[in-house]
Specification:
Blueprint: H1 2-6, H2 13-40, E1 45-53, E2 58-67, H3 75-83, H4 87-105, E3 114-118, H5 121-126, H6 129-140, E4 147-152, H7 153-158, H8 160-173, E5 176-182, H9 189-194, E6 199-202, H10 204-207, H11 214-230, E7 233-236, H12 242-250, E8 255-256, E9 265-266, H13 267-275
Parallel strand pairs: 2-3, 3-4, 4-5, 5-6, 6-7, 7-8
Antiparallel strand pairs: 1-2, 1-8, 1-9
Helix pairs in contact: 2-4, 3-4, 4-6, 6-8
The structure holds guanosine-5'-monophosphate (G) and manganese (II) ion (MN).
Manganese (II) ion (MN) is lined by residues 63, 118, 150, 180.
């Protein structure tokens, strides 16, 4: 009733609204059942997007990205639906297991490859990440230093004290820590210090058009001096053009990720790409 009133609609709108809500709920349940099935059958895939190191002239890092087999559903929809249930924990376990298995089985040529894994806010608060990572590394006989964990600013701000504890336990394991989508949240600079962050990933909104956009240019410029002062390394995300690449390089950004350098790809393709 509240929604019908809010929208200044008459009484007849109520039933329409209600039917719509029911449909949405049904779809979400159906989607959850589908995620459950995909997890059980290991239908999901992890793709990898290489990060270019322009100083060394190599791809030494990759970001692991979950891919849904059916292209009609976006992975964001899947994660949103999963986050409201324990499915998100299973999705998280799946990604960590996949990545560890991939790294443990890839050839000596990729012995230095570091893969970063995205951790969702719900996962961060409800999953024992230290246990999850150390257990997977033990099972696959993998050194945790081959992994990096990416969390967003939003995740840390929700509970800074908890974030501090979790991140410090991960750091103890030897995992690298990155703050993802940097610049889109509202974290204070002190958070970077408190949280023992090793990397920040500059959000693509500041990268897009940076050669022409004075604001983005100044923001990235300021971020670079801050990162330098705090001894934090930087990766720029969403680099799509030559101009963006050149401008970022002129600002001292040496690690670049985006379609310009490489798109996300399945693991077999990645191995071929890295050894080409
Ligand atoms: O914020 P986060 O780094 O987790 O986002 C990763 C997402 O960004 C993935 O879905 C990936 O496919 C996408 N992505 C990677 N490189 C680019 C790019 O150059 N441009 C755009 N628009 N998206 C990208
Ligand atoms: Mn990320």
């Amino acid at each position: 009733m509240y929604h019908a009133k809010q929208n200044k609609l008459g009484g007849s709108a109520w039933s329409i609204f209600y039917e719509g809500m029911d449909a949405a709920r049904l779809t979400r349940n159906a989607l959850r059942a589908r995620i459950d099935q995909a997890l059980t059958n290991r239908e999901l895939e992890v793709w990898y997007q290489p990060v270019w190191d322009d100083e060394q002239g190599v791809f030494r890092r990759c970001e692991a990205l979950l891919r849904w087999p059916d292209e009609s559903i976006s992975i964001q929809e899947v994660i949103d639906a999963a986050e409201k249930s324990e499915l998100i924990l299973r999705l998280g376990e799946f990604v960590v297991d996949e990545v560890c298995s991939f790294l443990a089985n890839s050839s000596a040529a990729q012995a230095n490859l570091v893969v970063s894994i995205n951790i969702s806010p719900v996962q961060f608060h409800y999953q024992n990440l230290e246990h999850l990572i150390s257990d997977a590394c033990k099972r696959h006989k993998l050194n945790p230093s081959r992994l990096m964990i990416e969390i967003t600013e939003r995740t840390t701000i929700e509970n800074v004290e908890l974030a501090g504890k979790v991140l410090s336990s991960l750091k103890q394991l030897g995992v690298d820590l990155a703050l993802d989508d940097f610049g889109t949240g509202y974290s204070s600079l002190s958070i970077l210090h408190t949280l023992e962050i090793d990397w920040i990933k500059i959000d693509r909104r500041f990268v897009q058009n940076i050669h022409a956009d004075k604001n983005s240019y100044q923001i990235v410029n300021a971020l670079m001096s801050m990162a330098h002062a705090l001894d934090i390394r930087v990766i720029a995300e969403g680099v799509e053009t030559d101009e963006e690449h050149a401008t970022l390089r002129s600002l001292g950004v040496t690690r670049l990720q985006g379609y310009y350098h490489a798109r996300p790809m399945p693991k077999d393709q990645l191995l071929a790409f890295l050894s080409a």
